[in-house]
Design a protein that fits this description.
The complex is a heterodimer of chains A (581) and B (169). With 581 residues, chain A is of the alpha+beta class. Chain A has three domains: 250 residues, Sulfite Reductase Hemoprotein, domain 2; 161 residues, Sulfite Reductase Hemoprotein, domain 1; 135 residues, Sulfite Reductase Hemoprotein, domain 1. Chain A has 20 helices and 20 strands. In chain A, the strands form four sheets. A five-stranded antiparallel sheet of chain A has the order 1-2-5-4-13. A five-stranded antiparallel sheet of chain A has the order 3-14-15-12-11. In chain A, helix 12 crosses helix 13. Chain A is globular. Chain B is of the alpha/beta class. Chain B has a single domain, classed as TIM Barrel. Chain B is built from six helices and eight strands; from the N terminus they run ββββααββαβαβαα. The chains are: A alpha+beta (581), B alpha/beta (169). Chain B: This is Oxidoreductase. Chain B: Pfam families: DUF934. Chain B: InterPro entries: UCP030820.
């Protein structure tokens, strides 16, 4: 347990769960397995145990074992196996977080790494331990199914769902329906390539839906009150980035499974299989032409046995119970103790400016826990820290923790009265950095330190940028500025949608880094453009600083980087970067 | 090569003919789509059953008009990773209401067997040195299905089971 300091109220004064002798995470909005789910998950573990045994005995080849282990989240990396555990749509209970901490400690090197798809990776498991790790996960309703391989991957969503003030529809119930539908789908498990679905229910897109194979924006028909989705298809990053095209403006909830079946069936039959780099659906859509592709989807959908895929409102209601709002209290909109703490402690006040988001309920706030301490590895967290987060979630946020696609964590339902003790406890274990959305809140792929595909390092570049801008006051002055770094053109670090994107390339055996400007993963999704020739490992940090200083010189009051760039264009930045050479 | 039905080898009545092999006077035969199209009259004039092979890049729609004449459609897996035949099988059953035998052949691994049965495949052709208990076992390893498909286990799909009141409130 973490030692609490400061004016921490006793847990039983404000945790209905504890007061009623329920587990502290009884209200955490995670899908809780029923008897069918439990039967399935333990059967799956035993199936994989047998597969591993067959592999260890040499009864199946590595080539044949590969898709099997990938479908269970197990990669072979540069130095070792890596296990990627699914965190469905980013939601975790404190019980699950503690189990992840235990796995990190017992089977790995004492830490885990949260990914841009809201999952967690363990970098050093032994093959023979993996079936046991999967069993430990199954005991807390977790798995590693379809976190890799050419199948439908973990469905991602808005990390603030069910709490954000701007949300129109809570996407989690639909994300869970899609998770179940896609699990071991008999037809769509050997697709041309991996397939990623993202879903949001807010007009402010925090799930980057337009850079996914399928992007869904949940909305309510204003007249009828029916819930449905705007369906986007064919987005993606990687070597050939595309923004998705709109396939349909409104697919009612009851029809969404059938509509997705149609999309996947067209793709499974017509997606390219001759070239791994041309196999994603974005290539199919763009080679064929969006109109023709959408026409094929509509034809397929028109003739599907729709009744078979009809999502009954009773199903939605049943799954919705897992995501019921926690029992928020009636609180005044303004907390005196919170306001007083901000006045008294400037470091806390600074954290509240970047790491809090408006909650829909008066008196509450959404708190982002930065996993980007200055000089740290983006997304990494130690087992002890995970346990601290679990304890704090129990105390202050109904035992629930979320993972963001920006590789941070979120406590979504914190009373404003509790924010100061929460921050103090986080800060005491190195999790209180006030940099959410700022220049040091960097997304970086694992790069050459772990990955067999990488051309360059990525993590050390992120660390050195964060160190260059380590002065938090300077970071706050710069305002929102998203840097995203990929160590090769596969774009796992999302460099295409960074306000400043950095792409590592191999140039005759040396690491080189290109800068892209103007990308945006939000509602106004945009792909960045390469600004000019690349920089070497030392030069890239100076180059980023040059871009930032140019922004400071050009900005008008209140502007953030991306706004200044949109106003001035790339020319002044290009000039600053290359004129001095 | 051995043919498996429900995981076990069966006596197979079909002869799989290469395009340069002569058509025998009697017996059930499987021919390529190209040969079916070129020699359709001669093939249908025979008394015995006919099946057609589809390569993985040949869609089920290629056979839509012919299915009434065919007792078997064989779907090729050139590599086990090439999953187009999963959709072809499903289209044959679900879209064209094909009731004849669907057979999968080529490079197939036991771990795909359950999926194959769930998209409507009846039989699987397996190299002799690959026949073993793994195939029958593969059909029993996972008893729960999460989505409607074409298998016998359909009744437990999520789209139905949540209506049975099994979800904890």
């Amino acid at each position: 347990m973490t030692e609490m300091t400061g004016p921490t109220p006793m847990p039983d004064t404000h945790s209905p769960a504890i007061r009623s002798n329920q587990p502290a995470d009884a209200h955490a909005a995670v899908y809780r397995y029923d008897e069918f789910d439990k039967t399935f998950i333990f059967e799956r573990v035993e199936q994989f145990r047998a597969q591993v045994e067959r592999r260890l005995k040499g009864e199946i080849t590595e080539e044949e074992f590969k898709p099997i282990r990938l479908m269970n989240g197990l990669y072979l990396q540069l130095h070792a196996y890596m296990l990627r555990v699914a965190v469905p749509y980013g939601m975790l209970s404190s019980t699950q977080v503690r189990r992840l901490a235990r796995i990190a400690r017992v089977y790995d090197k004492g830490y885990g790494h949260f990914t841009t798809r809201q999952n967690i990776q363990f970098n050093w498991p032994k093959l023979e331990d993996v079936p046991t790790i999967l069993r430990e996960l199954a005991e807390v309703d977790m798995h590693a199914i379809q976190t890799s391989g050419n199948c439908i991957r973990n469905v991602t969503t808005d990390q603030f769902c069910g709490a954000a003030a701007d949300e129109l529809v809570d996407p989690r119930v639909y994300a869970e329906i899609l998770r179940q539908w896609s699990t071991l789908h008999p037809e769509f498990t050997y697709l041309p390539r991996k397939f990623k679905i993202a879903i949001t229910g807010s007009p402010n897109d925090r799930a980057a839906v337009q850079v996914h194979d399928i992007g869904l924006i949940a909305k309510k028909d204003e007249v009828t009150g029916r819930v449905g989705f705007t369906v986007y298809v064919g987005g993606g990053q990687g070597r050939t980035p595309y923004l998705a095209v709109k396939a349909r403006d409104f697919v009612p909830v009851e029809e969404i499974i059938g509509y997705l079946e149609a999309i996947l069936r067209v793709y499974n039959q017509l997606g390219r299989r001759d070239n791994i780099y041309k196999a994603r659906i974005k290539i199919t859509v763009n080679e064929m032409g969006a109109d023709k592709f959408i026409g094929l989807i509509e034809e397929e959908y028109a003739r599907l046995p729709r009744q078979k895929f009809y999502v009954d409102p009773a199903i939605v209601d049943a799954i919705q119970t897992h995501f019921a709002p926690p029992p928020w209290l009636d609180l005044p909109a303004v907390s005196d103790s919170f306001e007083a703490a901000k006045q008294a402690d400037p470091a806390f006040a600074r954290w509240t400016r970047t790491n809090l988001t408006a909650h829909r309920t008066p008196g509450y706030a959404i708190a982002t826990i930065s996993l980007k301490p200055i000089g740290g590895i983006p997304g990494d967290i130690e087992a002890d820290q995970m346990e601290t987060v679990a304890d704090l979630a129990d105390l202050y946020s109904f035992g629930e923790v979320r993972v963001t696609h920006e590789q941070n964590l979120v406590l979504a339902h914190v009373r404003q009265d509790d924010l100061y003790p929460l921050w103090q406890a986080l800060d005491a274990v190195g999790l209180g950095t006030a940099n959410a959305g700022l220049i040091s809140d960097i997304i970086a792929c694992p790069g050459l330190d772990y990955c067999a595909l990488a051309n360059t390092r990525s993590i050390p570049v992120a660390q050195r940028i964060a160190e260059r801008f380590s002065d938090l006051d300077r970071q706050h002055d710069l305002g929102e500025l998203k840097i995203k770094i990929s160590g090769c053109i596969n774009a796992c670090g999302h460099h295409h949608v960074g306000h400043i994107g950095i792409l590592g390339v191999d140039k005759k055996g040396d690491e080189f880094f290109q800068i892209l400007l103007g990308g945006d993963a939000g509602t106004n999704a945009a792909l960045g453009e390469i600004v000019g020739p690349g920089f070497d490992y030392d030069g890239i940090i100076d180059a980023v600083e040059t871009v930032v200083n140019t922004f400071v010189k050009l900005r008008q009051p209140g502007e953030i980087f991306i706004q200044t760039l949109a106003r001035t264009g790339h020319a002044p930045f290009k000039e600053a970067l290359y004129a001095r050479a | 090569m051995p043919v498996l039905d429900r995981g076990l080898p069966i006596d197979d009545r079909w002869t799989d003919l290469a395009d340069d092999q002569e058509i025998p006077a009697e017996g059930a035969i499987i021919v390529s789509l190209e040969r079916w199209r070129a020699e359709r009259d001669a093939l249908t004039a025979r008394r015995d059953a006919i099946g057609v092979r589809l390569k993985s890049n040949q869609l089920a729609t290629e056979l839509a008009a012919d299915l009434g004449a065919l007792s078997l459609v064989a779907l090729e897996f050139p590599k086990f990773r090439d999953g187009r035949a999963f959709s072809a099988a499903r289209e044959l059953r679900e879209r064209f209401d094909y009731k004849g035998e669907i057979r999968a052949f080529g490079h197939i691994i036991p771990d795909q067997y359950l999926f194959l049965t769930r998209v409507g495949v009846d039989t699987v052709v397996v190299p002799a040195d690959r026949v073993g208990p793994a195939w029958a076992h593969a059909l029993k390893e996972i008893s729960v299905a999460f989505q409607p498909a074409l298998g016998r286990e359909d009744g437990t799909s999520v789209l139905r089971r949540h209506l049975k009141g099994t979800v904890p409130a």
